[in-house]
Amino acid sequence: MLKSQSLEVEHIREDFPILKRKVHGKKLVYLDNAATTQKPRSVVKAISDYYNKHNANPHRGVHELSIEATEAFDESRRRVGKFIGAGAFEEVIFTRGATESLNLVRFGWGVPHVEQDDLIVLTIMEHHSNIVPWQLLAAEKGARIEFVGITADGKLDEGQFEELMRESPALVAFTHCSNVLGTINEVTKLCSIAKKSGATTVIDGAQSVPHMAVDVQKMDCDFLAFSGHKMLGPMGIGILYGKKEKLQEMQPFQSGGDMIKEVHTSGAKWNDLPYKFEAGTQNVEGAVGLSAAVDYLDSLGMDRVRQHEEDLVAYAMERMGAVPGITIYGPTEASERGGVVSFNLGDVHPHDMASILDEEGVAVRSGHHCAQPLIEYLGISAATRASFYVYNTREEVDALMDGLAKARRIFCI
Amino acid sequence: MSSSDIYRELILDYYRNPRNFGKLDPHDIDAKDSNPLCGDEVEIQIKVSADNKIEDIRFFGKGCAISQASASMLTELAKGKPLEWTKELSKNDILKMLGTSDLGPARIKCALLSMKVLKTGVYGYLGTTPPESADH
Fold first, then answer.
1. pTM of the model
2. 1.10.10.10, 3.40.50.880, 3.40.50.10860, 3.90.1150.10: which CATH number matches A9-30+301-410?
């Protein structure tokens, strides 16, 4: 018997007005949460409250509204920092999203520290956002990149990882949770091995921070990147967590207003952390919205969020696994994977599958999921992905199953 | 018309048993393109006759049923036609060929990829620039 759902989902669903809408005359079944999540009323309200009551340019004025905007921005930073267990306020940098966070590490840390013939280690299960910045860095510096492969059941080849660590890489960048396979990597263990080899560690937390309790101090990573919009927050806001000593040895990323302490015709002096990496007027509405999202997730409890997704994935894999002609990618145990289930069914191309499911109101992602090296590694051209979050139910998995049955009828499988 | 109505027997037959599939050697025209959203790929090779007609045509590619069936059906439609014929080819011709009136913005690109490739190849061969719009 599968465990009962650990969240009060019907109650949670009331907080998300969009879940009431219909698509093609059918009830919306939103299973594209690894791409972006829906937003609860409290997040939308936090943003509108900010604009209706407090809006001004932070860090610039002495007037009341500017002080309030500054306080809202700083409080959001404290709030998000606490959520991931950051040791200090200075270690939490606001960015546009995980992609910008990773690019910040590339320019801020990578450019001054990575040298010719240095080794950069990535894994084959990375999202493009954790590959392309390093490819460009490697090309610029004459460094080389090695990809750690995966085992037959979609787990990281830890033996190969350890072997590569013996070559003393300058930088190791890997995902906490694969957006295609769902594989949860043992970040704490891997960071510890990487650290012994002297490597700087960069973790892509875009698919883990929204779905499970994450503690950067326990993980002992140097950097962690994630996006607000994948965790109930607004688009256009994200976080780079960096260890203080790493951030201190970095050069600025973007430059301009707010990231400086003094500017003279002869040059400029950089602002203190974290502002050194936040040039220009910041996305205060995004920060405030992300803070409200974190409040919402904390009110549910991240352990319960994780349990709920594990239950849904176990149920989905049990039901989907019984479908003739289906291939499900990634680890077989729900306890070893995040809230995504990627699959192929017979010779139904994922885009055709997504169209057929869309017709039933079921929103899934199809394609290469911005992980082309992995898709090629798996020997496929695309996959369909259902991804779950706090408001999804077993009934919605059943709706997905009805959609799969329809696809099988149409394609005579 | 619902979008899944496109998956009729005819489309699935062309998807699973594509006509004119493969490479053509020698060829006079070779063009390929992909749809970055879907990853659909279509390559078209053409042998041009002395009087500027499509003497033979093959396509090669991978992707969804709509993109691959559309490419296969288009090669059948194009075979024997004057190169100039491809200039007149429009979105509506492709929809008619597929037996549908509309596909919606997400999937229309799959259907039109092969037309785009055909036009790119022919316009390149004739030394002219293809029109910007995907509709024509």
1. 0.93
2. 3.90.1150.10
